[in-house]
């Protein structure tokens, strides 16, 4: 998956959950999806609208009531839903999954299958700030999803970051669909 699309997809907290639920066969009606995600109505509605704007889901024509529409995955949405399902399955613990719902977690893990310097990650994620990247890397390192190593072979030592354990499983889920 294109990194820019991944950044857009993960910018709403419940987008991955909604896609994963639709991939697993949960009916595409708001009530069923809302109950399965345990999200708040406002955040859920924002994520659903966001997925429609990204053309990953669409209203199912001829199904549902105008005030309670039914949704279905589009062709690009099917691929994204498969990836989202693999990510959700990689992190079964709800307390740790809160970190996955943060905007930059999945894009950072997608880039760090191989060791990357801070500046390389930042250049690939054009709109991320230094502070957001640093904070995200620290949170991922605290959960042992990213390992920080110091490269001493160069004249000036520098840190590199690489996805490990659950972080690597998320990296593989994203990159297998690429």
From TrEMBL:
Pfam families: HxlR (PF01638)
Organism field: Ruegeria faecimaris
GO molecular function: DNA binding
Keywords per UniProt: DNA-binding, Transcription, Transcription regulation
Keyword Amino-acid biosynthesis set for record: no
Protein name: Transcriptional regulator, HxlR family
Chain ranges of the HTH hxlR-type domain: 100-152
